[in-house]
């Protein structure tokens, strides 16, 4: 999963630690944006405490067009966090620099 954030004022999407914005619906990402996405990925799996329903919903989500065009990202899905939150199915995921991705159930 690519961990992304949306700037609340501009709507621009970047990786959680990156600065270069990009269009997920676009057809191309710069090499530096690809590197940022690869640096800000996480593997989420049900055995690690993420509910099976969340993992299933993420697997069923479409690969963003900008990722599908890149060999290194062609199987990655995106989690776009708005103010640190991202809804997936019935669950709310959160992102924190120190703790990573967690659910409300983890609190």
From TrEMBL:
Domain Cas3 C-terminal per the UniProt entry, residue ranges: 14-100
Pfam families with a match to the protein in the record: Cas3_C (PF18395)
UniProt cross-references to InterPro entries, sorted A to Z: Cas3_C
Protein name in UniProt: Cas3 C-terminal domain-containing protein
Lineage: Bacteria, Bacillati, Actinomycetota, Actinomycetes, Pseudonocardiales
